What we know:
The chain has strands at 2-11, 17-23, 55-58, 61-63, 67-73, 76-79, 89-92, 96-104, 120-128, 131-141, 156-164, 172-176. By secondary structure, the chain is mainly beta. The strands form two sheets. Strands 1, 2, 3, 4, 5, 8, 9, 10, 11 and 12 form a ten-stranded antiparallel β-sheet that branches. β1 and β2 (17-23) form a beta hairpin. The model has no long low-confidence stretch (mean pLDDT 86).
Amino acid sequence: GKVAWAEFRGTAGGFVELEFEVWFKTVSRSATAFPTIVPSVASNAAPYVMSGDTTTTLVSSARTVYDFALRIDNGLARRYAGGATTASSLDENDRIVTYRATVPWTSTEQDLEAQAIGGTTGTLVLTNGGMSTTFTFGVLQVPDNSPVIVGRSEVTLTLEMVARMTGTTKEISVVSDSVA
């Protein structure tokens, strides 16, 4: 099987969630009972919590982020040959990586509103104690977007970014020291 897409998302003070979809060429049915799942108590199995340890760097500065969603879509396509009812292959097409983040709108974030068309590098770092996972983006392109003012609540800016490859640097690379 192959991962069709995966989305990491979090809201300040809550758990970081991962949702994903796996595709298979064929599926075999089995009479085997579902295994008993026992949660690990190891330090590297603790969940990530979106807190002060969650760091986003955009336009060369660390940013406060209220919520985020990082989606990696591998662009899978099922290939059927010769009238088969099962896929003969799962082919990867263009991978699309999007990163949405909501930030406060203060004088510190004004450089995020009208970014360069060519984009800028960025990172998302999830940390839990001594464990971390770092997502590094080749270039993040951000459409020019203005903050939204709703009543008397805090003014925020939602950035809808697309990661792009630049030179030989991939659109996204992931380093995790949380693996047992």
